Amino acid sequence: QVQLVESGGGLVQAGGSLRLLCAFSGRTFSNYAMGWFRQAPGTEREFVAAIDKSGDSTYYADSVKGRFTVSRDSAKTKVSLQMNSLKPEDTAVYYCAAVGSNYGLRGSGTYDYWGQGTQVTVSS
Question: What is the pLDDT of residue 114?
Fold first, then answer.
């Protein structure tokens, strides 16, 4: 069973940066593509970024492109989301997710495993 644990959330001023980490355990990390999603109160969970099994391909929502960077560290079995130039509209609970496929990574329904989420709050 895959377990995912997010960390790194917090309160930051607009224009600031945060780095989220997702620790992966329970299965072979390189067999899973990883995604980041977020959910603000009263909204549906939305795609933020994803990285394929090898780390060669990354995908971003238009709203974060150029500001966020997703990467994976196979040795540490972690995936990170570097978030720069944060805006108040980035405020949400951020979730890490894993799937044993490289297809459909923008869809939340694709993923088999989810973390518990970490809160990111950006003040104006």
Answer: 98
